[in-house]
Design a protein that fits this description.
about 100 residues, 6 strands
Length: about 100
């Protein structure tokens, strides 16, 4: 659940929020990215505040701790070197709800 997500102490100063209105769903997304490297760390959605899209590469142990990966989004754009997430719901685009 997104309310359990938090950045490490002190890392919030390296996070910039970009309000993206040019999305495939037409709904605004808030993209949080690192001010040092530009990597996207977290995406949240206006139409459903309980959903957070987390880049697994930003998490220790691929996030295998307090949460479970449920959805695999943009599967049609997966690079060959990125492993498929097993036991997840697959999406070729961002699902729209809300």
């Amino acid at each position: 659940m997104l309310q359990n997500f938090e950045f490490d102490d002190g890392s919030e100063q390296y996070v910039k929020v970009y309000h993206d209105t040019h999305t495939t769903t037409g709904q605004e997304q808030q993209r949080r990215s690192c001010t040092e490297c530009g990597g996207v760390t977290l995406i949240t959605l206006d139409f459903n505040q309980s959903i957070g899209i987390v880049a697994l590469g930003t998490m220790d142990d691929r996030g295998q701790g307090w949460w479970k990966v449920e959805h695999d989004v943009f599967c049609n754009n997966r690079s060959a070197w990125v492993p498929e997430m097993k036991d997840t719901i697959k999406w070729d685009a961002m699902p729209v709800s809300g």
